[in-house]
Description:
This protein is an alpha+beta fold. The protein is 38% helix and 23% strand.
Amino acid sequence: MWERRRAPGGKENHRRWHLKAFQASAPGRCGIAGNPSDIYGGAVLSCSVPARATCRITTGLGAQLPKDRRLWDAATARFPLDDVSVEWSSAVPQSSGLAGSTALLASTLACVLAARGEPTDLSTPECRLLFSELVRDVELKDAGIVCGYQDAYMVVHGGLQLMDFSGKHPTGGGPCGVLKSLQAELPFLLITTGVERLSGSVHGPMVERWLSGENGVIEKMKRTGQLGFLGAAALEHGDLHSLAEIMEENQAITASLGGSGEAIDLVIHDAKACGAVAAKLSGAGMGGTVIALTADPQGLEDELRARGYTRFLRPSIEPGLRFEEAVQ
């Protein structure tokens, strides 16, 4: 608690400021196989990345809000919170298909609830599942972003996860996803195209086609979900040949449904030319990020840098949403 008083000889009234700071962060993620079937009840193999989005909320400083308030307004539409200072920062490349906005929303929701005196319990698997569902629900219904479940589950849980979303539906409902945490080598390199895309701009039209009963979309999404299970088994067993085939098929399905695009196709071509065994869209669509399968991530990065690419990340086992000490 800080106390501010008038100088000696002034009036007796004073302001008493209660300064409290709340800080949380969450990691980005990359889809390895099965994406984007999570929207349609499929399975996705996904891994966290070593880049995090952070929210810090301080009470007692007056209202200071971000310029782009979409995520803030979404979080506080359901959990009102006024007269606070909000600071956001993120190392996740913007609109890159690595769940940066979802990571920021999860961190913001956690801080908002803590500032309201309703701190989020992340101590059990059940609590993390429920909070993942909340994050996705707020992103879809309050922020108006057409999104699946992969992002919300991954930013909350982190790590390398096989996520089964059987029973889920694009418009909501269904049981919580079933997660299996995996331990495996991660022979991947992420290459960001530099073309910023909001995933909802790609998912929205595809969801409409699925909801309208377009058989081709329904069948292809069902197969994509199966690839999530197959990809997890291949990665666990170190079967890179099978994993390459799975990733290639996943990308072919995505491209056939209009979710790839020129920027992605170019990165995939260049990655393979530089030695990648396989490459596919990791997130966003029509831009965003490519994940390349390679036994030599550093060598592939060096080759691609020589071609002018500059934005790289490596998947890694990172903790999910967490509270952090907020230095006053």
